[in-house]
Amino acid sequence: MLKMEQIFANNSNWVTKRLEADPSYFERLSQGQTPQILYVGCSDSRVTAEDLMGLEPGQAFVHRNIANMVISIDLNFMSVLNYAVRHLKVQDIVVCGHYGCGGVKAAMTSQDLGILNPWLRNIRDVYRLHKKELNAINDIDKRNDRLVELNVQEQCINLLKTAAVQVAIKERQLTVHSWVFDVRCGKLVDLNLDFDNLLKEITEIYSLDV
Ligand code: CO
Q: N or C, which terminus of the chain has less Cβ within 10 Å?
């Protein structure tokens, strides 16, 4: 079992290595942050943020929750989003799902999971939106994988419904990216979604006067 003391030893080593490479590293870090990216990912312990993107501290503002959800009444997420977009002025927002996501899998079962039910309900709604396509996939793992992708798509659309994102697109062409991490091989997959097309029919409903 991992001892907590080990973590502090690891931390000491990390500080030493950082300072060896750059004596002013922490001095620079302490002066503030100007991340270019807001990363929205799953809390899953296998799906890190900086590690899998090869980024350093200071490069990504990070929010993680079960199944990388963008929920308009989640005060936690909406605070992160508004701070990142309106104050830190990030240029890119990434929603990164991952194959084998436990949250997505759970939403495909009828199990009563207590307090998780209202959270997973949002993923069930994604399933309902794409029920036809998903039910046509017989292989359960492939169906799960597809729901992971469609969930990323819908969470990106949820981002595009917010005033903060609409303002930033207008002001500085902020870009929303739809990615999936494949735990089985470590690769990041860009779903390359065409949001202009996806939003065509719903823009008139969700566009705000920004
Ligand atoms: Co997950």
A: N
Tens-place pLDDT, residues 103-154: 999 999 999 999 999 999 999 999 999 999 999 999 999 999 999 999 999 9
Kindly list the domain boundaries of the chain, sorted by start residue: 1-29, 32-206
Q: Is 149 helix (H, G, I), strand (E, B) or coil?
A: helix
pTM, whole model, 2 decimals? 0.95
Instruction: Give residue 101 CA to ligand 1 midpoint distance, Å.
Output: 4
For residue 199, give every residue at least 6 positions away whose Cβ sits within 8 Å of its Cβ, in sequence order, or none.
157, 160, 206
Q: How far is the CA of 95 from the centre of ligand 1 (A)?
A: 12
Q: How far is Cα 93 from Cα 39, in angstroms, rounded to an integer?
A: 6
CATH class of the domain comprising 32-206: alpha beta
Indicate the SS3 state at residue 7.
helix
Across residues 48-67, what is the average pLDDT? 96
Q: Give backbone dihedrals phi and psi of 187, rounded to 5 degrees, phi first.
A: -85, 145
User: How far is the centre of ligand 1, averaged over its atoms, from the C-alpha of 21 (Å)?
Assistant: 34
Strands of 175-182's sheet, edge to edge?
A: 60-65, 37-42, 92-98, 175-182, 187-190
* Residues with active-site annotation: 42, 44, 46, 98, 101
